[in-house]
Amino acid sequence: MTKSKIKEILIANNKYQVIINRKAIKNTYIRIDEKINIVVNTNKYTPYKQIETLIFKNQDKLVKIVNNKKEQMLPKNKIAYLGEYFEMVFKKKSGFNYDIINDKIVFYTNLNKEEALNLFYKIEAESYLPKRLQICHTNFIKYIRISLPELSVRKMNCRYGTCYYTKNKINLNSYIMKYNDEQIDYVIYHELCHFIHHNHGKKFYELLSTIIPNHKNIRKNLN
Fold it and tell me: What's residue 198's pLDDT?
């Protein structure tokens, strides 16, 4: 017979309900259900402290699963832009243009959805990200002086950004326009720190922590 109990846990500044199912099983299993609850199936002898430790040990994986589920739950006609969600409206027209009106983005184009999104994020990123870089650089040189890097923007499949310190240049993924300013700035500061420390060693994270004390929580919330 299954006995269930509900707890609450804080992960990366987000509260989640933990549903603990006590069953006649030997091992403990964790999953995320469709309502974004953490479901734990375990035996009747496993103490909650051990369950909590197991959840925190796997929190990075759980956050990724949560983000993926939230993305899948979005209606097909919605997209993320600067940390908010907008309804997409397509109106057939030659060329490419768009208007952002309240909670809608109206595309005037014959391009398909993927082509339109790629172009939309690129145009917005090329306009918006240089301003964020200027703000972050102004703050960064309060700690360590470096020259303002050259910025390029392009879509990348596996990276938020890259640093070419020998060329005084950084690349930023145009798709980080999905995120809010805090998350975008985290990506920029991460790349700026690479001008001082070229790998992800202890000194790199010490510098990043000095500039963004809560960088670990921000990183966990990036999808």
Answer: 93
